[in-house]
Design brief:
91 residues, alpha+beta, Alpha-Beta Plaits, four-stranded antiparallel sheet, 4 strands, 23% helix, globular
Length: 91
């Protein structure tokens, strides 16, 4: 193998931004939970729910977040992938 030949292992690296999700749960969690939920924004709503928002790198990471929610014991109300154009408007 010459110096110009590069062997790549694993899946190709995507140049697309990570998809953004909105996860709504029952009960209130404070913003301090953000680090535990991989940096997602944690915001309590007046209706007694909490919304976690932000990018999730892949399906494995999404399943990991859902397992953390299960481990905390809070009911999952909804999981929505936010369209990329909706996220850009928030920025």
């Amino acid at each position: 193998m010459t110096a110009h030949q590069v062997r790549s292992y694993g899946p190709p690296v995507s140049t697309e931004p990570a998809p953004h999700y909105e996860i709504r749960i029952a009960g209130h969690l404070g913003p301090r939970w953000s680090a535990w939920f991989d940096g997602l924004t944690v915001a309590a709503d007046d209706d007694g729910t909490t919304v976690l928002r932000g990018p999730v790198v892949d399906q494995a990471a999404l399943h990991g977040l859902l397992q953390k929610l299960r481990d905390v014991g809070v009911p999952l109300l909804s999981l929505t992938q936010v369209p990329s154009h909706a996220h850009q408007k928030e920025s």
